[in-house]
User: Fold this.
Amino acid sequence: MASLSAPDPAPQRVALVVGASRGIGATTARAFAARGVAVVLAARDAAALDAVAAGIEAGGGRALALPTDVTDAAAAATLVERTVAAFGRLDYAFNNATDGTMPAPLAEVPVDGFDRALAANTRGTFLGMRHQIPAMLETAGGGAIVNMASVAGAQAVANLGPYATAKAGIIMLSKVAALDYADRGIRVNVVAPGPILTHHLERAGAEAQRQAAASTPMGRVGQPEEVASAVLWLCSDGAAFITGATLPIDGGQSAGIKPPRMYRPGEPMAAAG
Assistant:
């Protein structure tokens, strides 16, 4: 697979970015384009997709916006078909679409909200890979897929039952796909962000952002560009021997608990628990 370390004079490789209308998806699409990769943008918001595509093209990149509901099996198939019809191949895919419900204790979660979280996250990722993998094998001889999970998919978070369950499903689904195609040139990995300053956290306000920053050992929230960099690295030759991995991008949250005041030698240590 060609390197993503520098722009190509003629953009021949193709990346499909799902959930590309804003936030991490849009930022990742721009990052692919900046490295000479033609980008197909998918999401439900057609106007937002068009704006992202226009920005990429204004910067000299190639972009195609295809409004898509990734929970629909026929739409997921059409998305990949139109990608290959437009650009002749598919090399990379970032399955980043997500949905969930308002936080609530498990017994108060609406059934339709639980179903919606699984449909957008786990089912959408399954449908995407089901069509992306054959297209990569047929048109590029291999490829790299990165799926979007969350630290909540690897470590439970109270009141996030549907979201955490759906993201955990993505992690396991990705591991299975990685094993199924490891010897056929397809690599499948997962990114699991913690608090990232996307439009959701921006809308939540300054206090929510302060609390999110305080929840990480690094004491800050992450930026969409930091997630995009990880996605592109996982698609690059630099990660050529990595498949089935889940990469946390969480300021140290998944490493453990960092007390507000660090223990110093000679001081009494409080018992855990």
About this structure: Strands lie at 14-18, 38-43, 63-67, 92-95, 143-148, 186-193, 246-249. The two ends are 49 Å apart (CA to CA).
